[in-house]
Design goal:
It is a single chain. The protein is mainly beta. The strands form 6 sheets. The chain has a 17-stranded antiparallel sheet that branches. The protein starts with a strand and ends with a strand.
Length: 496
């Protein structure tokens, strides 16, 4: 049973003072989401005929759950436009969420942005006639986050299957922590927008710089506490920055032949700027100051020993044992860059478009996707395990098969391979994301069947992927999950 409602009253005012245009907005948001769940499980029927009767089951168990989320805010914005070239926008808001403790439910946020359409200036119009549009813009603001689930700050309990003197027992399911509050993200952006040849060619470049110093995270706890984690605002500074570029064009190549093209590219980096007490925290083996959050501390894979046929790993400290001290930083899972390229052509009634998605990255390869040590138990294995080591002198990336749990081959595969750089390789790809082809018949032909429009079309998704990735799919990197489905659809559209 779900009951959701939201109301957003707004009041807007516009006026003009000579060359100055002013807009003011005042609004509020009131939202509530309620979920009530009843779940009944019935089993151990004496006959299939009784399956629709709950009372006929020998074992019956029931559970119920209720959650309620309330959110409200008040916000305002003022926009100023002087001479259609000098722009200023200021906004502020106060948000409240039921997902925080009684003294932490409300927080204030704001933003300021400015823009200058310099292409409207007289010198630019006189000396840069090839420039049809030019704009500089910048903004700074704060945004909040309460995406942590309901009742996370409360000390909660849940039923157990065990009983005491005929009564159902209770066990703690969450620790009380009313002190965490809204996550605060600070965002800075600057951009340049240019238009050429009457906006037939448009270019945009933007730089963004974001920082967050109180992330809402589950903080890991020692096993002695009886809980795996507790929610809190992490006292660490995380930085995200990068560039975004877009280029679009439209051209008429020949009579009735038109070409539109668009390219977008994002280069993004993040890093851990500060973390007080990192070395003594439960994250000491996971994060490194000055490095991305997605860094990987791994054993260095030296390959399969051609003599013994066993996986080998480098002993960094030369103490004769592989320990956490032998793991080194070996890249990260962040894409170096990603984007898309779209081209569309039209000629008379014929239209064709293609969207290519590309990404430069490293990812988990086929070695990471083995469900078990090949040869140990009865499980389906990918065909590449057939290239395993068999005889002394063989050069391969798959060690010999084994069913001996006490062997070095079994131990190296189970204990070290999944934590080594062997399971990562280049996962860059170019994918034909969307391809469409359509043809609209001429009006002279359509009139013969007394129709307004008659067209033929064919659409394809994920039609091809260009990659050197070793595994099932470079996007999901999971041998046991379906990759993006390749679909082709064709049809006829007839309007009367």
């Amino acid at each position: 049973d779900q009951k959701n409602w939201i109301t957003e009253p707004q009041l807007e005012y516009k006026t003009r003072f000579g060359r100055l245009k002013t807009e003011a907005l005042l609004g509020s948001t009131w939202q509530q989401n309620s979920d009530r769940l009843y779940f009944v499980t019935a089993s151990n029927y004496s006959s299939d005929i009784q399956l629709r009767s709950i009372s006929a089951a020998a074992n019956i168990s029931t559970t119920n759950n209720f959650s309620n989320y309330k959110y409200n805010s008040v916000f305002g914005r003022v926009k100023l436009d002087l001479s259609d070239r000098y722009l200023l926008s200021i906004s502020a808001r106060r948000d409240g969420s039921s997902r925080f403790g009684p003294q932490k439910q409300f927080a204030n946020f704001g933003a300021i942005g400015a823009g200058w359409i310099f292409s409207e200036e007289a010198p630019v119009k006189k000396y840069l006639k090839f420039l049809s549009f030019g704009k500089l813009r910048a903004s700074f603001g704060t945004a909040g986050n309460d995406n942590i689930g309901n009742y996370q700050f409360l000390d909660t309990w849940t039923n157990t299957t065990l009983t005491l003197q005929g009564g159902v027992g209770l066990v703690p399911s969450r620790l009380f922590n009313p002190d965490y509050s809204w996550e605060l993200n600070k965002k800075l952006e600057g951009a340049l927008d240019l238009g050429f040849l009457n906006d037939h060619l448009i270019f945009s470049a933007a730089y963004f710089f974001n920082r967050c110093g109180n992330q809402l995270v589950p903080y890991y706890l020692p096993v002695q506490t009886g809980f795996s984690s507790v929610n809190q605002n992490l006292d660490a500074i995380i930085e995200n920055k990068g560039f975004e570029f877009t280029i679009s064009s439209k051209a008429s190549l020949l009579k009735n032949l038109h070409w539109n093209s668009a390219l977008n590219l994002t280069v993004h980096r993040n890093k851990l700027v500060a973390f007080p007490g990192l070395e003594g925290s439960s994250y000491s083996t996971q994060y490194v100051l000055g490095e991305p959050l997605s860094i990987r501390r791994l054993y260095h894979f030296t390959g399969v020993d051609p003599v013994t046929g066993i996986y080998g790993f480098e002993d960094i400290d030369k103490d004769g044992n592989l320990t956490i001290r032998d793991r080194v930083i070996s890249g990260n899972s962040e894409p170096r860059f990603y984007g898309g390229l779209e081209n569309s052509f039209s000629w008379k009634g014929l239209s064709f478009s293609i969207l290519l998605e590309f990404r430069k990255q490293s990812g988990r390869n086929y070695l990471s996707q083995l469900s078990s040590v090949p040869g140990y138990d009865y499980r389906n294995q990918p065909a590449f395990v057939l290239s395993r080591w068999r005889n002394p002198g063989d050069k391969t990336s798959i060690e010999k098969f084994t069913q001996d749990v006490s062997s070095t081959a079994f131990n190296n595969a189970m204990s070290y391979l999944a934590d080594s750089d062997a399971i990562y390789s280049d996962a860059s790809f170019i994918r034909g994301k969307n391809i469409s082809l359509s043809y609209s018949l001429p009006v002279s032909v359509i009139k013969k069947v007394k129709a307004e429009r008659l067209s033929l079309y064919m659409n394809a998704q994920n039609l091809f992927t260009i990659t050197n990735y070793k595994g099932s799919d470079p996007e999901n990197q999971n041998l046991y999950a379906l990759p993006p489905l390749k679909t082709i659809a064709a049809g006829i559209q007839l309007n009367f």
